[in-house]
Amino acid sequence: MTSPLGFSQRRACALLDQPRSTQRYARKDRPPEREHILSRMRELVAKYPRFGYRRVAALLRQEGFRANPKRIHRLWIQEGYRVSVRGDPAAGHGPQSGLGLGLFP
User: What is the pTM of this model?
Assistant: First the structure.
């Protein structure tokens, strides 16, 4: 089979250094569930800001979504979420803290 430019598909792919299998690749559409997962994930993150992606994935699975932790982690990173870090209550106390607690005259 030749293209309108006179090259066969094999020759054209060889010239472009491209695998021929990519010419037959049909991209799958996004599953509509993805948007539902994202919206529910945003709601859960707003409600529970200290929950990480594993806990959010568990909540989504309990609600009936088909969501494994790897998928939720990928969406988590794409959304730019981070778990807020709680401050250490012991930090800033004691002689090594350097808060001027009479260490130097």
Answer: 0.54
